[in-house]
Design goal:
The structure holds two protein chains of two kinds.
Chain A: H1 13-36, H2 38-46, H3 60-76, H4 95-136
Chain B: H1 2-21, H2 24-27, H3 29-49, H4 51-59, H5 66-91, H6 107-131, H7 133-147
Helix pairs in contact in B: 1-3, 3-5, 5-6
The chains are: A mainly alpha, B mainly alpha.
Chain lengths: 137, 148
Amino acid sequence: MLNLGVNMQNIKSSNIIKGLLIVAILSIGIFSFLYIDFFSTLKSALLLELTVEPVQNVDFAEMQAKKKDMEAKIDSGEINKEDIVMPKGLQTPSLTSGLKGVLGFVGILAFVIFLVYYLDDYINKQNKNKRVLQKSS
Amino acid sequence: MGKMKTNFYLDLFLVIIFLLLMEPKLTGVVLHELVGLAISLAFLTHIIFHWKWVVETTKKYFKLNNRSKIKYILDILLFIGFITILISGLAISKTINFSWLNLGDNMVMWRNIHIASSYITIILIGVHIGLNWKWVMNTSKRLLKNNA
């Protein structure tokens, strides 16, 4: 029998599944944070560093006119559509990359839920133990 | 059970739509803006459904235990987060003209606020669900039992 310093027979299979699930959620969460580039995007946004908007201080009508002008130039072949670098939020919808992004956020959400739930559960158990000890003493 | 069922499905709907809206690349800007506006109404409905809790908790805030106090503060932060997302979203809207709201024309600033508030809010949503996870599990079990 393999001896890892613990009695393997005492480890229930449900605990192994639980352990694997914990590792999986933690891994998915960390991967998602990195994939979405969560913290650097948030930091840049908080410091007002994201300059995704090409033109500043334009009114709605002007922006619509520029958009129509650009579309006309693309239609006439004056500008190649692929040469235009669009801000992230304005890019053409893409199911594949969009779904990847959404999955990234799902991973982040699952990670946070899991972390908070276990932390909350741990604190509750500690408080319960404290109360039992206080009562018995 | 009826109210609980409505609450549960409304909350589930809010989370799913919010996640889809986190990536405008998936929906495109037009749908992102329209669905964003619609989800704001759903969010208001969520608050109306829980209004009794809001009033009662505010009244007895100082008598609450630490956990409930944290949950209450978290909910206020969530509310501020959603409102910030909504207002900044209106300011940078390209589909519907909200210029009559006079939110200023600094699009860069509003876009940064929109992104930052949505990133912070998704973390707050995670904390909110995590703290209410037992309710989520119990309710989904009850609903599954009732449906079976």
